[in-house]
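The freezer alarm interrupted the setup, so I double-checked each line after restarting. Inputs confirmed:
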Amino acid sequence: MGFIDEIKQNFPKDLSIGDSYRAVIFGETCAHFENVRGIKSFSSTEICLFLKKGELLLAGENLYIKSYFECDLVVLGKIKKIEIL
Amino acid sequence: MKKIFVQYKITGYNLDRLINHLKRKGICLYDVKKIDVKTMFVSVKYNQSKNFFAITEELCYNIVKVKLKGRNYPLFYLYKNLGVLIGAILFIFIATYFNGFILDVKFTGTGSADKIQIEKTLEEYGVKKFSRFSKYDLSDLSALILRSNKNLSFVSCEKVGNVLRIESSLVKEQGSVLTGTAESLVCPIDGIIENLKVYRGSAMFDVGEFVKKGDVLVSNKVVYKEQEITVNVLAVATILANTWYYYESDVEQNESAVIGLAENSFDLGEIASTEVFVEQLEQKYIYKVKINYRQVVSVG
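Predicted 3D structure, all chains:
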């Protein structure tokens, strides 16, 4: 995850979504989330995440979790929508 | 073991809950793909697979190990199957070592008709089965075979696997064109028949018989189905003949020099052997050289 850390260091704070978690989107195919509490639901078209405050919905096609450990989650696939619930 | 992953297929309900449970227990999950509501694939690091099974043992999920994968998997496989690695190394060593041995000699091309002569040359050079290719210079061998055999116009020796392949071509014979109109094969000199090949016609003498100049060696009359028919003769004969050379000198000469003089003074075929007889009369030396030579006669 060295590449992700490097990206995060260069990413301005004011562009992160909210205070409790961080989301980094790479084009339409990759999304990296930090401070994720858990997964509410998971399918190839929709992933719903538990955040510290609220939930986050990811919608798209052929979605799958590339890696999930501690509080970091990386999702790959065709991401069409990200919604904070 | 860092880059080795184990992929599992998990079947059951509430797979999302399982993912969260594993994450809370410290298992890192990779490539989590849901196939349908009850089935998903998940990959776990190899060194965490025991923990993974310990955690899921008491849960109501069917877990099947699918495969091992990862960048270091080939090395890991060799480590686990050391016998395969040793076998592969042994095979490579044996194949490389034994690849250098001559197991067979093959003759190709029109020159293979002269195989016996080529084999004699190979024996003189020391080439034999089960010797190593590296002992011989194949280009030198080709040149040696070509020099020692006048019937060949081209020789090439090459290594093909464990086989020494010798490709050779015969010298194209000059002059004799098949006309198809020969009536008989007549002997041009006195001598003994050393070799007689009759392709068409009737042989009148056998190999080893003495023949004189003018004798018909092969006639054009052939008995076919109890009838005598006339054919165009096609035959080759080798006659072993001899001639004498006389040389006088006031001083004693070297015999080999006299032989050389004798051979150069006649335009004979292939010289088979020479014998020198020396007589001393008063103050003169008389050398008598008997030259045995072969003459090939053919018709067709």
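Quick read of the result. Chain B touches chain A at residues 15-16, 19-20, 23, 27-34 (CB under 8 Å).
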